């Protein structure tokens, strides 16, 4: 039931802090130790590489998670689009371990891969929102995302749940001492709450930059993990507002896409990574010099006069959890402002059971 909400998507965006708290209750003890089964941790520890397999938004959550596995847990990790992996398997490492990310647990492309790796005798873990789904049942291990039913075709809270659970897994593997993840995730849930309470800001920005019929394309740019959020932000905008959108690594602009920048083209920069914030600003100003309409979504400690939306500071690798929320709301208000059916975009299905 949508209750007071005009669309499920808005309800599901609002639920994100609750989803995070639910995951924390389930996957941490009172001391903030991660509660992940020993068998799962032993298998990942024994593996020489983790292969994350997913599609669409779940693939984008995988891109963010891979950095956590590599940088926190020192575990080499590769992320693959399931429909690609299924028919062009890369050369595998000697002791691979597979993680499947899927909201529905029924995505045919991912099921195809799981079938193949089961036949080859490899072990796997599925993170899914639907217990007893096919990917849940057919993997060696499975953990629930606990996001509650996601009805809107555009995935939001499942993305947040996937990255949160990937972070808890990476943390459990790493035995990290220098970060209290439970505390950091609580802060992030509070931060997301503040962002969703700022809805009017994003409604206004969407109405100015993205809703006008004269806007037929838009760009999201970022570096490091922000580049993976740029992909997700662009996907969300495309699928529910039908604005042609691209998200990519900011350094790539000058290698081609800059040619598309015209007077008024929206370019939204995601800036949460201290190492590269100056470079992203440089890339953005190359677009403004060519007439783009630029907007920044930036972490507080990196913010400057004239920035668009300022996010609270969090651990840089966990920044996707906060920075994605403004982009979800921008997509939502663009779809709404264009008079479209936010929850049921044309041509798309919630669960993609064909290859
Ligand atoms: C986009 C979206 C899709 C799904 C993709 C994978 O908003 O929802 O891109 O993420 O179809 O679905 P799952 O996660 O169910 O395997």
From TrEMBL:
EC class name: transferase
Coiled-coil annotated spans: none
Known catalytic reactions: D-fructose 6-phosphate + L-glutamine = D-glucosamine 6-phosphate + L-glutamate
Origin superkingdom: Bacteria
GO annotations of cellular component type: cytosol
Any one GO MF annotation of this record: carbohydrate derivative binding
Gene Ontology biological process terms from the UniProt entry: fructose 6-phosphate metabolic process; protein N-linked glycosylation; UDP-N-acetylglucosamine metabolic process
Enzyme Commission identifier(s): 2.6.1.16
Keywords, comma-separated and alphabetical: Aminotransferase, Cytoplasm, Glutamine amidotransferase, Repeat, Transferase
Protein name according to UniProt: Glutamine--fructose-6-phosphate aminotransferase [isomerizing]
Species, as recorded: Weissella koreensis
């Amino acid at each position: 039931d949508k209750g007071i909400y005009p669309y499920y998507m808005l309800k599901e965006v609002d639920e994100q802090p609750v989803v995070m708290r639910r995951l924390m209750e389930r996957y941490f003890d009172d001391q903030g130790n991660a509660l992940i089964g020993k068998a799962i941790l032993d298998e990942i520890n024994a593996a020489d590489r983790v292969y994350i397999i997913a599609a669409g938004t779940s693939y984008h959550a995988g891109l963010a998670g891979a950095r956590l596995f590599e940088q926190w847990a020192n575990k080499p990790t590769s992320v693959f689009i399931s429909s690609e992996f299924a028919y062009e398997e890369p050369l595998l490492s000697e002791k691979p371990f597979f993680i499947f990310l899927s909201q529905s647990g029924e995505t045919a492309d991912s099921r195809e891969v799981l079938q193949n790796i089961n036949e080859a005798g490899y072990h796997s873990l599925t993170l899914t929102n639907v217990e007893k789904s096919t990917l849940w049942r057919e993997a060696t291990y499975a953990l629930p995302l606990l996001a509650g039913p996601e009805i809107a075709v555009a995935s939001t809270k499942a993305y947040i749940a996937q990255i949160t659970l990937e972070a808890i897994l990476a943390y459990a593997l790493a035995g990290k001492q220098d970060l209290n993840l439970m505390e950091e995730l609580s802060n992030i849930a509070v931060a997301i709450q503040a962002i969703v309470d700022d809805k009017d800001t994003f409604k206004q920005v969407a109405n100015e930059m993205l809703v006008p019929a004269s806007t037929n394309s838009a760009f999201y740019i970022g570096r490091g993990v922000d580049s993976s959020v740029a992909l997700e932000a662009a996907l969300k905008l495309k699928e529910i507002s039908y604005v042609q959108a691209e998200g990519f690594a900011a350094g790539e602009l000058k290698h081609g896409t800059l040619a598309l920048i015209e007077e008024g083209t929206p370019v939204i920069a995601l800036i949460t990574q201290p190492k590269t914030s100056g470079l992203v600003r440089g890339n953005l100003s190359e677009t403004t010099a060519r007439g783009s309409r630029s907007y920044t979504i930036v972490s507080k400690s990196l913010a400057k006069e004239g920035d668009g939306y300022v996010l609270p500071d969090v651990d840089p690798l966990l920044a996707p959890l906060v920075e994605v929320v403004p982009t979800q709301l921008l997509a939502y208000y663009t779809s709404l402002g264009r008079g479209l059916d936010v929850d049921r975009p044309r041509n798309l299905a919630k669960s993609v059971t064909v290859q």
